[in-house]
């Protein structure tokens, strides 16, 4: 079982690059521990800024540093980064085109029992609605590394959501196909297509295995690049399928499911089923308990596909 979190990988990549690039700067909002960025702060104190619990300042300062030529990575809990500092993200980062990568840590329902105040079930919709803002949800530690290596090579703003806990690997160190802004085909299938992002990709992959044992052939598409959505890849994978199912740790409104349905409806109309969190405060529990309760696990995804085919 994997015990390495995606946030640990983010820190590793940034530390590797910061050794040779002093323009890389990391900022936190009293979250270096929960973001697993304490090692970076210790190793590169002159390239680290702690702003305290002040998310609006976090984004504004980040944008200012970026305008001075720095490559900025700002980490804060996704629930706060995507709400308290929304105007600063819109104006200071996206509208101004600053090279700020916003890292939403402990995304979705990672905070478990802390409830709706700490859950981020709206961040995909909110961030994707901002012109000029990209939205990424890497599925495992290997894809997280590939994504951040690619982000270090560009100068455009982006929002990246990662969970709090370690997740089971979808890929491997030896085999992690990756192309920037192109969805990854996890497995092929002929009857249905399951499109997932973030922590829902591994359950989708496992659901496809369960369905295969029942004689149902389901393809799985890892849409880590929620915006820009890989419409070409989506339509290619959806061609000939009887059903498209989307799976996301997000509200049913404005997220991956809405975007996929929009593309499918305009180009290749067929049934699209959206599996998501409910439009309500979620039940209290760990991430796994919440996922199990709402059917956002392998069994629940397989059951939904089976029933809708």
Give an account of the 3D structure.
The protein is of the alpha/beta class and 309 residues long. The chain is built from 12 helices and 12 strands. The chain has helices at 6-18, 38-43, 55-67, 78-81, 86-95, 123-128, 141-151, 201-213, 231-238, 256-267, 287-293, 298-308; strands at residues 24-28, 48-50, 71-77, 100-105, 134-136, 158-161, 184-187, 192-196, 218-222, 225-227, 243-247, 271-275. Helix 3 (55-67) packs parallel to helix 5 (86-95), helix 8 packs across helix 12 (298-308) and helix 9 (231-238) crosses helix 10. The radius of gyration is 19 Å and the shape is globular. The chain starts with 5 loop residues before the first helix and ends with a helix.
Brief sketch in words of this structure:
The chain has 12 helices and 12 strands.
Characteristics:
309 residues, alpha/beta, 12 helices, 12 strands
Q: Secondary-structure blueprint of this entry?
A:
Elements: H1 6-18, E1 24-28, H2 38-43, E2 48-50, H3 55-67, E3 71-77, H4 78-81, H5 86-95, E4 100-105, H6 123-128, E5 134-136, H7 141-151, E6 158-161, E7 184-187, E8 192-196, H8 201-213, E9 218-222, E10 225-227, H9 231-238, E11 243-247, H10 256-267, E12 271-275, H11 287-293, H12 298-308
Parallel strand pairs: 1-2, 1-3, 3-4, 4-6, 5-6, 8-9, 8-11, 11-12
Antiparallel strand pairs: 5-10, 7-9
Helix pairs in contact: 1-7, 3-5, 8-12, 9-10
């Amino acid at each position: 079982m994997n015990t390495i979190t995606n946030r640990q990988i983010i820190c590793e990549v940034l530390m590797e690059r910061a050794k040779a690039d002093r323009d890389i700067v990391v900022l936190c909002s009293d979250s270096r521990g929960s973001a697993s960025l304490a090692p970076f702060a210790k190793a590169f104190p002159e390239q680290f800024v702690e702003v305290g619990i002040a998310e609006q300042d976090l984004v504004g300062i980040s944008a200012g540093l970026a305008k001075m030529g720095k490559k900025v990575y700002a980490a804060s809990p996704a629930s706060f980064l995507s709400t308290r500092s929304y105007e600063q993200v819109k104006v200071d980062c996206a509208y101004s085109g600053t090279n700020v990568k916003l890292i939403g840590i402990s995304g979705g329902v990672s905070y478990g029992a802390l409830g709706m105040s700490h859950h981020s079930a709206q961040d995909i919709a909110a961030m994707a609605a901002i012109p000029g803002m990209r939205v990424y949800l890497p599925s495992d530690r290997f894809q997280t590394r590939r994504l951040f290596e690619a982000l270090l090579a560009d100068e455009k703003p982006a929002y990246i959501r990662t969970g709090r806990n370690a997740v089971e690997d979808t890929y491997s160190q030896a085999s992690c196909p990756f192309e920037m802004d192109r969805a990854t085909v996890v497995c092929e299938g002929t009857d249905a297509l399951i499109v997932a992002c973030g922590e829902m990709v591994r359950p989708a992959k496992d659901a496809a295995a369960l369905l295969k044992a029942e004689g149902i052939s389901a393809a799985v598409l890892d849409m880590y690049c929620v915006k820009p959505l890989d419409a070409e890849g989506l339509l290619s994978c959806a061609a000939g399928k009887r059903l498209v199912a989307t799976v996301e740790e997000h509200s049913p409104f404005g997220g991956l499911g809405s975007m996929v349905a929009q593309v499918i409806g305009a180009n290749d109309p067929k049934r699209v089923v959206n599996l998501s969190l409910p439009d309500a405060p979620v039940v209290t529990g760990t991430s796994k308990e919440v996922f199990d309760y709402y059917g956002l696990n392998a069994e629940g995804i397989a059951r939904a596909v089976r029933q809708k085919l």
